[in-house]
From TrEMBL, chain A:
<keyword id="KW-1133">Transmembrane helix</keyword>
<protein>
    <recommendedName>
        <fullName>Sulphur transport domain-containing protein</fullName>
    </recommendedName>
</protein>
<feature type="transmembrane region" description="Helical">
    <location>
        <begin position="38"/>
        <end position="57"/>
    </location>
</feature>
<dbReference type="InterPro" id="IPR007272">
    <property type="entry name" value="Sulf_transp_TsuA/YedE"/>
</dbReference>
<dbReference type="Pfam" id="PF04143">
    <property type="entry name" value="Sulf_transp"/>
</dbReference>
<feature type="transmembrane region" description="Helical">
    <location>
        <begin position="110"/>
        <end position="131"/>
    </location>
</feature>
<keyword id="KW-0812">Transmembrane</keyword>
<keyword id="KW-0472">Membrane</keyword>
<feature type="transmembrane region" description="Helical">
    <location>
        <begin position="78"/>
        <end position="98"/>
    </location>
</feature>
UniProtKB/TrEMBL annotation, chain B:
<comment type="similarity">
    <text>Belongs to the TsuA/YedE (TC 9.B.102) family.</text>
</comment>
<dbReference type="GO" id="GO:0005886">
    <property type="term" value="C:plasma membrane"/>
</dbReference>
<protein>
    <recommendedName>
        <fullName>Sulphur transport domain-containing protein</fullName>
    </recommendedName>
</protein>
<keyword id="KW-1003">Cell membrane</keyword>
<keyword id="KW-0813">Transport</keyword>
<keyword id="KW-0997">Cell inner membrane</keyword>
<feature type="transmembrane region" description="Helical">
    <location>
        <begin position="12"/>
        <end position="29"/>
    </location>
</feature>
<keyword id="KW-1133">Transmembrane helix</keyword>
<feature type="transmembrane region" description="Helical">
    <location>
        <begin position="168"/>
        <end position="193"/>
    </location>
</feature>
Amino acid sequence: MRTLIYLLIGVVFGIVMTKSEAVSWFRIQEMFRFESFHMYGIIGTAVVTGIIGVALSKRMGWKTIDGDSLKLNPKDFTVPRYLLGGTIFGLGWAMTGACPGPMFTLLGQGIWTIGLVILAATAGTYVYGVLRPRLPH
Amino acid sequence: MLDIIQGPWHWAVSGLLISGVMFALLYAGKEFGVSANLRTMCSMAGAGKHADFFKIDWKAQRWNLLFVGGAVIGGFLATTFLTNPEPVAISSATENWLTTLSIDTPSSGEQGGGYVPHELFSLTEMGWKQLAFLLVGGFLIGFGTRWAGGCTSGHAISGLSNLQVPSLVAVVGFFIGGLLMTWLVLPALLGIYV
């Protein structure tokens, strides 16, 4: 039963990604060219409501459905991995107009060639995993 | 009512629903982060034999694969039953820029309609140049997200919501890369391509 919930949340996510047009290569170009507020509005609203919700959850001690504390693990602070990895991801994001969520949603829309992007992204993750001991973090 | 749902959704509604997705996963005891699935897929394919990074219990990540499966289904449902009658209404400034690059805009008719440019994504126009373009782009996404430890969902949404400084650094990186691509690399590449 619980498994179905994850599928359902994913369905909602896919519909929102489509109807918000965040899956659109055109919208991503527009965002990086600073020619519309649309994408900034989406991400900004998600972050602002997220900040408020997370702050409330800490103050009120919200628990998960199983009674555990929410999974909000802080990451260790370093710069190289976030800046370098982030920059490489940003290059790919603007090139294909897709980040990992929308990649899968576009596949569901019948944009079959996005399958190549998904395959290559999996290969990229594999190469990272192999090179990981030699990369700065 | 249906026309409101079929048209593009307002950014505020969309943003609210995305944080709703994040809180739904938190309530279920999970973390919102789509790119982690790429690592899981490598582990499932046996990459643990080649790198310790993939020696994880991928079965514990099945929930996230289901989430992604849902994202595929959601894309299908939204385009099949909630089809937007209008092309993506990007700003005229962006349309002009695309025209200078010889890329059809969403509003330029049958060919340009849809969420992605047919010059890069159409199956019928697929040649070795398009193939290389999509493979390189995908590789950068997969390599970059894992190095940075997250993508838009994990860093820009979840990380910033939790006021994590590493996520802010990652988002700065996303923009350095994105701006470089859109302003410098893409125009040069499309000059060769289109």
